[in-house]
Amino acid sequence: MQAQVVIKPGRERSLRRGHPWLMSGAVEAVRGAPLPGATVDIVDGRGEWFARAAYSPSSQIRCRVWSFSPDEAIDAAFFRRRLLTACEVRQRVGLSASGNTAMRLVNAESDGLPGVIIDRYAEVLVGQFLSVGAEAWKQVLVDAAMDITGCRSFYERSDSGAREREGLPETCGRLGGDEPPALVTITEGTAQYLVDVRTGHKTGFYLDQRENRALVAAACRGLEVLNCFCYTGGFGIAALHGGATMVTQVDVSATALELARRNAELNGFGPERSQVIEADVFHELRRMRDRRAAYDVIVLDPPKFADTRSQLEGACRGYKDINLLAFKLVRPGGSLFTFSCSGAMTPELFYKVVAEAAADAHREGCVVRELSQGADHPRLLRVPETHYLNGLHVTVR
Ligand code: SAH
User: Fold this and answer.
1) Which of 116, 178, 334, 352 lies at a CB distance of 3.0 to 4.6 Å from 330, suitable for a disulfide?
2) Is residue 193 part of a domain?
3) Catalytic one among 87, 151, 220, 341?
4) Are 256 and 367 found together in one domain?
5) Do 84 and 56 fall into the same domain?
């Protein structure tokens, strides 16, 4: 008999509403001796069946649901179906038709595959397996994803802190096909980017910002742009393709800036159009303010300042600080594209922080667009945790 996890009375509500997590505190008993990552049935004390899930004995999230239908077996065919659906959904919303060779193919819970991230960079798939359930089905997922996409290699980037909470070691390396090249070239509209899938952030590139890069590009013709926390230059290169006269890219990481410089070169933009500054943005914006520098468009896309709700207050001070400085540096008539990728941040709170920053800088801002993660990083209505990227395009008078 398949092992069962019994829910405590009164703790069924979120599962009943289709949220795919069962927290450790809601577990009454475990029947049988499921191994980490094994498939279990979630039932209540009276025997009512709720879901089929992966069992994570060392995680706070004790079970992650694979399926809410009692007739669905969790086997290789199941994972193939989920992967096919994820690819189809992306085609249906027009993601494959737009000249992009890179996109997220599987966004974990949003695609019915908790713990599984699969990104495509041209012919290379890069995966993160962030739960013991995902780990247990890893090779099945790799084989099916390679078969469905026809990609030549599958590289693993399970070097995320999330693995530790599941009792799993961090691990990276080739899981299928050829060893990927040191740098993979991807195309995004008219732009090309070099992506380091082995050691770059996340799986190599900020795919979640693709739609926002296009919006920045559309707002930069003939203008001078400052791209803060530029990483490998994503927004800056997009701005240059959009006709920016000059882009200044700031980051603390010399490695990221070297790739930003190579990306500018790859796209045919020399030092007269693109410069990089290796500096702490918090300090650099103050230096710029003190020498009365000014820019037409400023992009602020910092790393996550808050992981949890308890860190949110400190994070807000950080966001306020850089946004206030940016409002001081932006020319009248210019634009600020400002982001937060802290999962604990809400759109309302971010809006408030940016509004306070504008007020303290004595600038009048006008929100022309609210921004979020791209369509290949869909947000599941019933899983609020799948929304993490908040952004605003603010024009400044
Ligand atoms: N905007 C980028 C992604 C930003 S990721 C893109 O679209 O590709 C965050 C970046 O901020 C990283 O490259 C990291 O090196 C950099 N960073 C973190 N703290 C910083 C600081 N205090 N000053 C400057 N850069 C910082």
Assistant:
1) 334
2) no
3) 341
4) yes
5) no
For residue 211, the enclosing domain spans 206-396
Residue 370 covered by a domain:
yes
User: Could you give the CA distance from residue 16 to residue 20 in angstroms, rounded to a whole number?
Assistant: 9
Token pair for residue 300? Answer: 């602020």
For residue 276, the CA-to-ligand 1 centroid distance in Å is: 13
What distance in angstroms lies between residue 111's CA and the mean position of ligand 1's atoms? 28
Give the tens place of pLDDT for each residue, 269-301.
Answer: 999 999 999 999 999 999 999 999 999 999 999
Helix, strand, coil shares of the chain as percentages rounded to 5?
30, 30, 35
Pairing of strands 39-44, 49-55: antiparallel
221 and 338 housed in the same domain: yes
Q: Which two tokens stand for residue 188?
A: 């995004």
Which CATH number covers residue 245? Answer: 3.40.50.150
Q: Is 18 in the pocket of ligand 1 (CB under 6 A)?
A: no
Rounded to the nearest angstrom, the distance between the alpha carbon of 201 and the centre of ligand 1 is 10
Count of domains observed in the chain: 3
Atom of ligand 1 nearest to the CA of 280: 23
Residues 288 and 361 in one domain: yes
**Is 391 close to ligand 1, i.e. is its CB under 6 Å away?**
no
Can 341 be counted among the known catalytic residues? yes
Q: Which amino acid is at 209?
A: Q
pTM over 0.70: yes
